[in-house]
Design brief:
alpha/beta, 5-stranded parallel beta sheet, 19 helices
């Protein structure tokens, strides 16, 4: 029997109201946003309240109200610092306290008021936030001014909101229900504001586990997945040691994401908190090379692999061996290490020039888009490059969602990221060239890169197809390959004899995270493939839950064996010396 579908009257009224205000704004050119980049405010002579009245889309000034907030107020993301200002330094893109661009407390409340208390918050479902952040709850707490409670709710699902609030592309906003009739809520800005205020007010303090289980875990890799797993397992009472092959803790967070997106003091602040909570960190420990992996297995009750997907996708074309062609992570890592040396007071004259890749005065070409490609563009701009071009294999995305990309999927639409905006501000044009495939690198007599040859491509059912006769030569003396990552490096996987999937990632079922070897778990990019920081946190948390179940079962089994034999079967609480 067919059911009659009745339209939701409240949704229809909301759409009609929004269209009415949007039409007025378009026809009159008026906006509720003032010259200072915030909603206009007004305080009357007889008003004694601390909070001023705020301009609504209908032109009236009223106290901030959550009722119909997404209709009454305009989406107003907090802007980055001005492009021509920020390319002169390596400070974060986000404005700091005291900067006129920084949103006021009133504007933060207005943006939180736009959260519409929808019946099904898609922002925290599988199409939205991978860690299932309780977004409507902490949006409402920000509106109410309850910042302590807001960080508590945020930490229930997200171990490191100061990382995701800065670097996550915010799939939650793409799935926001308000986006059906208007622009989505500024969820990422609100998350960032919550955690920054929490650090500022001292709400984030060490949580020392009250009890210890006596079980030990070795975590290999200190990126977002490894740190999330370590945090969760430590709070469960296990003794956790994190091994990192680099000289600093953080993995991708420390060396893969440049300073202007994620200040390294922010990473170290969280790592220091985890250290205070009882987690041990060991750097310069390359498992399978300078640390014996069998010693690790013998001294710990379980091992968790959070290796990342660090094997880059190469471009095997003629001239690949020329000097001046580099992988993106090589370029970004060496730049970040140089910045950290500067910060620690090491004079420029003492730098090892051979270990640094500079874009200064060079014609730079970045092959590959995405976040990493943008980071390479932004880094090149801060080096004072002569020019920068970005090749993308795919066509330019549409300005609005295509029919095969409906809400609440992530919107595959044209956008301008921070690096593109900086190039546009300096050189007057977007650096991206679409539907381009690199065919050959050309070198000089000394083996240095001097140019490359491209072909235009068209997308067919069988993939990209080169267009005959479309070859072009581009001058360049620095080419950065930013085409993603294919898998984890194989040496740890091979040493343990782990099963891998068809893409050479560690084989472990999502939700279980156990590998083919007893007591060894895997999560993050080394299991799922290259992905977002927020997905790495999701995997780290899931791995910890599975590992915890294994450890508790192992402890019970060993206790039972001990009762039967009278022997001390479990000596794993002894601190390992490796």
């Amino acid at each position: 029997m067919l059911k009659r579908i009745v339209a939701n009257p409240s949704r229809i009224r909301a759409q009609q109201s929004f269209r009415k205000f949007a039409t007025v704004e378009k026809s009159t050119g008026s906006s509720v946003i003032g010259s200072d980049g915030r909603h206009e405010i007004w305080r009357g002579d007889v008003d004694h309240d601390n909070e001023p009245k705020v301009k609504r889309r209908d032109g009236t000034y009223q106290p901030v109200s959550k009722l119909r907030g997404f209709i009454n107020y305009q989406r107003n993301p907090e802007p980055y610092r001005k492009p021509l200002e920020r390319i002169l330094d390596w400070e974060e893109l986000n404005p700091v306290k005291g900067d006129p661009l920084k949103h006021s407390a009133v504007e933060q409340k207005v943006q939180a008021a736009r959260c519409m208390d929808c019946g099904t918050p898609f922002c925290q479902t599988e199409t939205g936030c991978p860690v299932d952040n309780l977004i409507p709850e902490w949006n409402n707490l920000v509106f109410e001014g309850q910042w302590k409670e807001a960080i508590d709710r945020l930490h229930k699902t997200n171990n490191f909101p100061e990382f995701t609030g800065r670097v996550c592309p915010a799939p939650c906003e793409g799935a926001c229900v308000a986006g059906l009739v208007d622009s989505p809520v500024t969820i990422k800005n609100i998350e960032y504001a919550i955690v920054d205020k929490a650090w500022e007010e001292g709400y984030i303090v060490p949580r020392i586990p009250k009890e210890r289980t006596g079980m030990t875990v070795a975590i290999v890799g200190s990126g977002p997945a490894g740190l999330a797993a370590a945090d969760q397992l430590n709070q469960m009472g296990h003794k956790v040691t994190v091994y990192e092959r680099a000289d600093r803790i953080g993995g991708l967070l420390m060396y893969g994401i440049p300073n202007m997106k994620l200040e390294k003091d922010t990473v170290e602040r969280r790592v220091n908190l985890l250290r205070e909570e009882g987690i041990e960190f060991v750097t310069n420990a390359d498992i399978g090379r300078n640390v014996d992996i069998n010693d690790l297995r013998a001294n710990y009750d379980a091992m968790a692999l959070c290796l990342g997907a660090t094997k880059p996708r190469d471009l095997p074309i003629p001239g690949r061996e020329l000097k001046g062609v580099h992988f993106a992570m090589e370029f970004l890592t060496k730049n970040q290490k140089r910045l950290l040396l500067t910060k620690e007071g090491k004079l420029e004259s003492q730098w090892d020039k051979n270990s640094f890749i500079t874009a200064a005065g060079k014609d730079v070409i970045v092959i590959g888009g995405g976040d990493t490609g943008t980071d390479c563009i932004g880094t090149s701009m801060r080096h004072r490059c002569k020019s920068v071009v970005n090749f993308e294999l795919m066509p330019r995305p549409p300005l609005e969602r295509a029919p095969d990309n409906p809400w609440p999927q992530w919107p595959r639409v044209y956008g301008v990221d921070y690096g593109h905006a900086e190039v546009q501000a300096v050189y007057g044009k977007d650096p991206r060239e679409y539907s381009v495939m690199t065919k050959e690198f050309i070198g000089d007599e000394n083996g240095n890169l001097k140019a490359l040859i491209t072909q235009d491509v068209e997308i067919t059912d069988k993939g990209p197809k080169a267009i005959e006769g479309s070859e072009r030569e581009w001058k360049t003396d620095l080419c950065i390959l930013s085409m993603g990552f294919v898998s984890p490096e194989a040496y740890v996987v091979e040493e343990l004899g782990l099963d891998v999937d068809q893409r050479n990632n560690v084989h472990a079922v999502y939700g279980d995270f156990r590998t083919s070897v007893e007591g060894v778990f895997a999560g993050g990019d080394c299991r799922r493939g290259q992905s977002l920081v927020v997905w790495a946190i999701n995997e780290g948390r899931g791995l910890a839950e599975s590992c915890n179940n294994y450890l508790l079962q192992k402890r019970d089994d060993e206790a039972l064996t001990s009762d039967k034999t009278g022997a001390f079967a479990n000596l794993s609480s002894m601190s390992p010396k490796i």
